[in-house]
Design brief:
about 220 residues, alpha+beta, C8orf32 fold, 4-stranded antiparallel beta sheet, about 30% helix, about 20% strand, globular
Length: about 220
């Protein structure tokens, strides 16, 4: 877990997974904010670019270490929450915004029914979001659920106002509970890969044999 000091240089430096020094990641970040000068608006633009530019897809998982780097996520048309958090955190560092990754186990009530039935659980282990140091504080921002998906599910897309946490839509349009945190794993300056696989194995080992297989395709469920 990271040092909470926002000036910790590790919150700005490239890492293995948050490879913010990769040309593809740098180009992505600079293109998104090319005509934006205000820092808050830059973060908002990056949030939207990751949220909507990579539709949420938890049905195709490539858990190989090298495949989860931000530069590799950019090569895909779709991504899931952990990959999108990694990309957003890396892009933030390109623009000198301190960033971290935050993970927790959440209970999901809408949107992943087929996967939940297959996994025999409505607990999503290691749900990921990014954290950015902005306005003199750490703020959580979750780019997981793209606008089109939210509209299809009948929930309002999650927005980032530049000041407050944007974690997830807690309630659906009729007041039904949408998602809730069950366990918080904390904040990290890089992807805690071994812990991630350990949590997946603990919750879904009977369906996700991550010790022998790291690529899964559930799109035909």
């Amino acid at each position: 877990m990271v040092n909470p000091n926002p000036m910790n240089p590790e919150a700005l430096a490239p890492t293995y997974f948050l490879d913010s020094d990769h040309p593809r990641v740098r180009d992505f970040a600079h293109q998104v904010v090319a005509h934006i000068q205000d820092p808050v608006q830059q973060v908002q633009a990056l949030f939207l670019a990751v949220r909507d530019g990579f539709p949420y897809d938890p049905y195709k998982l490539d858990l190989r270490r090298e495949s989860m780097r931000a530069s590799q996520v950019l090569l895909r048309p779709r991504a899931y929450c952990v990959e999108k958090a990694i990309l957003l955190a890396a892009a933030l560092r390109v623009l000198n915004f301190p960033s971290r990754l935050f993970f927790g186990n959440v209970r999901n009530h809408i949107g992943t029914g087929r996967l939940e039935a297959f996994l025999d659980s409505n607990v999503l282990a290691f749900h990921g979001c990014a954290e950015v140091y902005l306005q003199q504080k750490w703020i959580k921002i979750t780019p997981a659920f793209n606008q089109q998906l939210c509209h299809r599910l009948g929930v309002v897309p999650l927005e980032f106002d530049g000041h407050n946490d944007a974690i997830f839509q807690e309630f659906g349009p009729q007041g039904q509970r949408f998602m809730e945190y069950l366990v918080e794993h904390g904040s990290f300056t890089d992807m805690p890969y071994d812990l991630y696989l350990s949590e997946l194995d603990k919750h879904y080992g009977h369906k996700l044999p991550t010790r022998t297989q790291l690529v899964f395709d559930f799109s035909n469920l």
